[in-house]
Automatic annotation (TrEMBL), chain A:
Its EC number is 1.2.4.1. It comes from Brassica carinata. One of its GO terms (cellular component) is mitochondrial matrix. The keyword Repressor does not apply. Keywords: Metal-binding, Mitochondrion, Oxidoreductase, Potassium, Pyruvate, Thiamine pyrophosphate, Transit peptide. It comes from the Eukaryota. The keyword Cell wall biogenesis/degradation does not apply. Residues 39-214 form the Transketolase-like pyrimidine-binding domain. One of its GO terms (biological process) is pyruvate decarboxylation to acetyl-CoA. It catalyses: N(6)-[(R)-lipoyl]-L-lysyl-[protein] + pyruvate + H(+) = N(6)-[(R)-S(8)-acetyldihydrolipoyl]-L-lysyl-[protein] + CO2. This is Pyruvate dehydrogenase E1 component subunit beta.
TrEMBL record, chain B:
Keywords: Oxidoreductase, Pyruvate, Thiamine pyrophosphate. It catalyses: N(6)-[(R)-lipoyl]-L-lysyl-[protein] + pyruvate + H(+) = N(6)-[(R)-S(8)-acetyldihydrolipoyl]-L-lysyl-[protein] + CO2. Residues 65-360 form the Dehydrogenase E1 component domain. It comes from Brassica napus (Rape). NCBIfam families: PDH_E1_alph_y. This is Pyruvate dehydrogenase E1 component subunit alpha.
Length: 366, 389
């Protein structure tokens, strides 16, 4: 129950108060599970790639600094040593070129895992992702499938400015032929990346730099090398009955914090971790809204034509008569990302924004 | 060591000079000629002469400005570690000769565009230390009002077009500025700077091809510091002779640690570009810091290599030796100058620390020049919105 999510333990011991906290089911930032393992998202991703490379010799890794440098964010640490230069390729700083080469290798039956140091740089290669990878199976009537994974950090980091902070979930998720996944926890990272690498279609795998160092409890099942999560299924991180909050990636953590704050005020929020942006789990989202009658969608990216907009449309189309309040969207501000710390904070969703929107949906704001 | 000869136009005073005859530091513009330490290597052109015309004033100002740039970058390192600078911070120490030599050869009508290692280029174009530190710390008096950060410094009034975060993008942009200069018949050129990592970008060759076809006054300057982030040049480029990579476009390989060689090459390139179209300059240079403040810079190169370059090729040491051998200042005077520079940098930092952060309303400024009153939103669109003017 409380093992659904948690954060890194502060220290090892149990105190009476911490036991009480656990039993009450409140998922605070510091819950501790006796005997359960914890894993950082970084290690989860590393182990997933490692296991899939071990299982299938066609899987190889390609990208900038993935080999000798051990990965710009250390996600591919140790892989070059373990598998050698025939499985781990350091590329020049030429996204259009190496992405095209990756897609070509996938055409011919290999299974590339292409790393973008951030997804901002994927724009240099977006023609290959969309036109060469996403559409090929369709254009060739099934002859040419593209079992490739494009992965890397997506969205804002901390103070990296306008050209390094954009979220590409909405862009890629609008393209039929692509699958778009966004993990939150270590279990998500392992299960979804393994699923992505095994998947015969092109997958855009959107990680988050600020989550790499976060530790999450991880089950024995998730640690098994055969572990895999289904693509296209969202996860209900926290059950609730008053309002549905949908989100993905780092914002899941913010939504969970918001849910705790709302609980203090007697509002029970259901938090859905989308996990899969495309295919979007409309069934789970709509079932939840039909239960709660209220929707708050949250994302980090730009608001216009965003993931939230699609979710709102789906809910209004399919569950209109169940809605008791207008749908709410919390998203990144409609401006390029500013550098100054105070402006950056204003440009990104904060926990209080989610709380406020949920209260509005419950007609509880001042 | 560089040889030097007194110009025949000056009074013939043989060395060593006694104190009574020593030139005063600030105002002397006596011409001197400096020999570059290394010859130029040319591709499809005749290299310029190794004898560079300069003056005592220029030599001293090279020392002063380069020492200022060095101090500024080292101070930025400390500020980053103190978490006053956030995000990415790419430092230029070691590469100062390129910025300074280029400025000495051109005017503010000539344009410069570079990537993210831009603090010293900005300073060279006439930016102030205060604007640099205020921007780095995200304050409202920064050169981009705190909204750009380290990678996005600009100074349009001096034809400095930034400050770009995406590797290679600045090269076609630079060729575009050159296009505009030719279109408007400005008799000016554009220096599009990039690194050895960016040198393999396809867009570079596309822009170069068009520049050559249309005779644009584009000068592509490869600052070859031998590492593209953590990847050594030989691991990224089949041919690391970047000055030759233009194929049909002429090129020059230059000792980028020698400010006078850089000056000569840029002067040569400007004359060439105005008449004949694009040319490539490869500056053989070195960065002491890692790629950025997130990179220790020692996992892919040895500390011996770094200290070796510092010992043998440091650009400021070279200028210092020239100043001393020309008797333009004593060791003590140069040390005093360095103390002044240190103080100047510290004062600018103190002032920048006192500068307030941007007003929240700045979140919505400069999205457009002409917004037609369109709505823009904060994270909670029902709580925060603005009309873009």
């Amino acid at each position: 129950m409380w093992g659904i999510l948690g954060r890194r333990a502060v220290d090892g011991g149990f105190s009476a108060s911490s036991l009480r906290r656990m039993r009450s089911g409140l998922v605070s930032a510091r819950s501790y599970a006796a005997g359960s393992k914890e894993m950082t998202v970084r290690d989860a991703l590393n182990s997933a790639i490692d296991e899939e490379m071990s299982a299938d010799p066609k899987v190889f890794v390609m990208g900038e600094e993935v080999g000798q440098y051990q990965g710009a964010y250390k996600i591919t640490k140790g892989l070059l040593e373990k598998y050698g230069p025939e499985r781990v390729y350091d590329t020049p700083i030429t996204e259009a070129g190496f992405t095209g080469i990756g897609v070509g290798a996938a055409y011919a039956g290999l299974k590339p895992v292409v790393e973008f140091m951030t997804f901002n740089f994927s724009m240099q290669a977006i023609d290959h992702i969309i036109n060469s990878a996403a559409k090929s199976n369709y254009m060739s009537a099934g002859q040419i499938n593209v079992p490739i994974v494009f992965r890397g950090p997506n969205g804002a980091a901390a103070g990296v400015g306008a050209q390094h902070s954009q979220c590409y979930a909405a862009w890629y998720a609008s393209v039929p032929g692509l699958k778009v996944l966004a993990p939150y926890s270590a279990e998500d990272a392992r299960g979804l990346l393994k699923a992505a690498i095994r998947d015969p279609d092109p997958v855009v795998f959107l990680e988050n730099e600020l989550l790499y160092g976060e530790s999450f409890p991880i089950s024995e099942e998730a640690l098994d090398s055969s572990f895999c999560l289904p693509i296209g299924k969202a996860k209900i991180e926290r059950e609730g009955k008053d309002v549905t909050i949908t989100t993905f990636s780092k914002m899941v953590g913010f939504a969970l914090k918001a849910a705790e704050k709302l609980a203090e005020e007697g509002i029970s929020a259901e938090v859905i971790n989308l996990r899969s942006i495309r295919p979007l789990d409309r069934a789970t989202i709509n079932a939840s809204v039909r239960k709660t009658s209220r929707l708050v969608t949250v994302e980090e990216g730009f608001p216009q034509h965003g993931v939230c907009a699609e979710i709102c449309a789906s809910v209004v189309e399919e569950s209109f008569s169940y809605l008791d309040a207008p749908v709410e969207r919390i998203a990144g501000a409609d401006v390029p990302m500013p550098y100054a710390a105070n402006l950056e904070r204003l440009a990104l969703p904060q926990v209080e924004d989610i709380v406020r929107a949920a209260k509005r949906a419950c007609f509880r704001s001042k | 060591m560089a040889l030097s000869r007194l110009s025949s136009r000056s009074n013939i005073i043989s060395r060593p000079l006694s104190a009574a005859f020593r030139r005063s530091i600030s105002t002397d513009t006596t011409p001197i000629t400096i020999e570059t330490s290394l010859p130029f290597t040319a591709h499809l052109c005749d290299p310029p002469s190794r004898s560079v015309e300069s003056s005592t004033q220029e030599l001293l100002s090279f020392f002063r400005t380069m020492a200022l740039m060095r101090r500024m970058e080292i101070a930025a390192d400390s500020l980053y570690k103190a978490k006053l600078i956030r995000g990415f911070c790419h430092l230029y120490d070691g590469q100062e000769a390129v910025a300074i030599g280029m400025e000495a050869a051109i005017t503010k009508k000539d344009a410069i565009i570079t990537a993210y290692r831009d603090h010293c280029i900005f300073l060279g174009r006439g930016g102030s230390l205060y604007e640099v530190f205020a921007e780095l710390m995200g304050r409202q008096d920064g050169c981009s009002r705190g909204k750009g950060g380290s990678m996005h410094f600009y100074k349009k009034d001096s034809s400095f077009y930034g400050g770009h975060g995406i590797v290679g993008a600045q090269v076609p942009l630079g060729c575009g500025i050159a296009f505009a200069q030719k279109y408007s018949k400005e008799e000016a050129v554009t220096f599009a700077m990039y690194g050895d990592g960016a040198a393999n970008q396809g867009q570079l060759f596309e822009a170069l091809n068009i520049s050559a076809l249309w005779d644009l006054p584009s000068i592509l300057v490869c600052e070859n510091n031998h590492y593209g982030m953590g990847t050594a040049e030989w691991r990224a480029a089949k041919s690391p002779s970047y000055y030759k990579r233009g194929d049909y476009v002429p090129g020059l390989k230059v000792d980028g640690m020698d400010a006078f060689a850089v000056k000569q090459a840029c002067k040569f390139a400007k004359e060439h570009a105005l008449k004949n179209g694009p040319i490539i300059l490869e500056m053989d240079t070195y960065r002491y810091h890692g790629h950025s403040m997130s990179d220790p810079g020692s996992t892919y190169r040895t500390r011996d290599e770094i200290s070796g370059v510092r010992q043998e090729r440091d650009p400021i040491e070279r200028i210092k030796k020239l100043v001393l051998s020309h008797d333009l200042a004593t060791e003590k005077e140069l040390k005093d100058m360095e103390k002044e520079i240190r103080k100047e940098v510290d004062d600018a930092i103190a002032k920048a620390k006192d500068c307030p952060m941007p007003e929240p309303s700045e979140l919505f400024t400069n999205v457009y020049v002409k917004g037609f009153g369109t709505e823009s939103f904060g994270a909670d669109r029902k709580e925060v919105k603005a009309a873009l003017p």
